[in-house]
Specification:
The chain is of the alpha/beta class. It is built from eleven helices and 17 strands. The strands form four sheets. Strands 3, 4, 5, 8, 9, 16 and 17 form a seven-stranded mixed β-sheet that branches. Strands 12-11-10-13-14-15 form a six-stranded parallel β-sheet, covered by helices on one side. A hairpin with an 8-residue loop joins strand 1 and strand 2.
Length: 353
């Protein structure tokens, strides 16, 4: 076993504090990674505060992981020591079901996806511990190649915020000739704007804050609509091919469904801790509109996304923090006081708290 430094929460109300855990030694198919940076996702906060239920304490969050390979097992073929590598939201799955065979491990039908933290760990018998730590050991099939072309810290959020927005935009074939809406300008939304723009779509950002208009356009939005302004919203009725809704708080979905064309789709990727108000059925059936959801992406698509980002120079807009400021970062995240993703410099784990 390998002694590992980390930060963990021990209850729903306690702050994250220094924590020691043991990682397994690399097995024949394992890759050991020295973690350099880890993004801070809203899912981390939901889990730490057990807002979705099922949190096992102590919990070590973090699933936007980039670092350097330090050791590989005897059967590993894809990675060598010294290579840059990443780990996203998953570390294993059944690998045999239809979804896994199609490279959609996030939808594993048998036994379920093994998430990077707070999931059953079939190796240790406990639960998985995430990237708020200085090393991790993962089967090579769930490790991703990271390009040296991009800023490494700003690449970390691509492992969740990036793939969460890339996957539905690709699935619904967003591209040139599409009119696409992105609801919300946060960790997910700012990546949605960047990708929709990069795919060549006419990109419209919806935000409740007038202060985000300039930033939305800087990130690639062709238009920015203040969603609280009924007059602005009415100008876009029935005109969108696709809307990606990234907001992780309950809100009125009908306001956006009415903006879709016939056969248009709105996809939800934000995960609120309580349900959205139920939409009006008539807003769906009279235009054959669809309301859908999407969960991250499989390993092949995540690698595709990382390669696309390296080719097009796309990273997240981040604020780099020492891990000792993680509790402050959570409070700021609740106030949307970050542009647009916190990333932890894991080197600070070695500093005295």
């Amino acid at each position: 076993m390998s002694h590992t430094l980390a930060f963990a929460a021990h209850s729903t109300t306690s702050p994250l504090v220094p924590f020691a855990l043991d990682r397994r030694e690399p097995g024949p198919r394992d890759v050991q990674i020295e973690i350099l940076y880890c993004g801070v996702c809203h899912s981390d906060l939901h889990t730490v505060r057990d807002e979705w239920g099922g949190t096992v304490f102590p919990v070590v969050p973090g699933h936007e992981i980039v670092g350097k390979v330090t050791a590989v097992g005897s059967q590993v073929k894809k990675f060598k020591a010294g290579a840059l590598a990443g780990v996203g939201c998953m570390v294993d799955s059944c690998r045999t079901c239809a979804s896994c065979q199609e490279g959609l491990e996030q939808y594993c039908d048998v036994g379920g996806t093994i998430f990077t933290y707070n999931a059953p760990d079939k190796h240790s018998g406990g639960v998985t511990y995430g990237g708020y730590s200085n090393r991790i050991v993962v089967d090579e099939d769930f490790v991703l190649h990271i390009s040296s072309k991009l800023d490494l810290a700003a690449t970390a959020p691509l492992l969740c915020a990036g793939i969460t927005t890339y996957s539905p935009l690709r699935h619904w074939k967003v591209g040139k000739g599409s009119k696409v809406g992105i609801v919300g300008l946060g960790g997910l939304g700012h990546m949605g704007v960047k990708f929709a723009h990069a795919f060549g779509a006419h990109t419209v950002l919806f935000t409740t804050s007038a202060s985000k208009v300039a930033d939305g356009k800087r990130l690639g939005a062709d238009e920015v609509v203040i969603s609280k302004d009924e007059a602005q919203m009415k100008q876009h009725l029935g005109s969108f091919d696709f809307i990606l809704n990234t907001v992780a708080a309950p809100h009125n979905l009908d306001a956006f469904l009415t903006l879709l064309k016939r056969d248009g789709t709105m996809c939800l990727v934000g995960a609120p801790d309580s349900p959205h108000p139920s939409p009006q059925v008539f807003n769906l059936i009279f235009r054959r509109r669809a309301l859908a959801g999407s969960l991250i992406g499989g390993i092949p698509e995540t690698q595709e996304m990382l390669d696309f980002c390296a080719e097009h120079n796309i990273t997240s807009d981040i604020e780099l923090i020492p891990i000792q400021k993680i509790n402050e970062a959570y409070e700021r995240m609740l106030k949307s006081d970050v542009k647009y993703r916190f990333v932890i410099d894991i080197a600070t784990l070695a500093a005295k708290s």
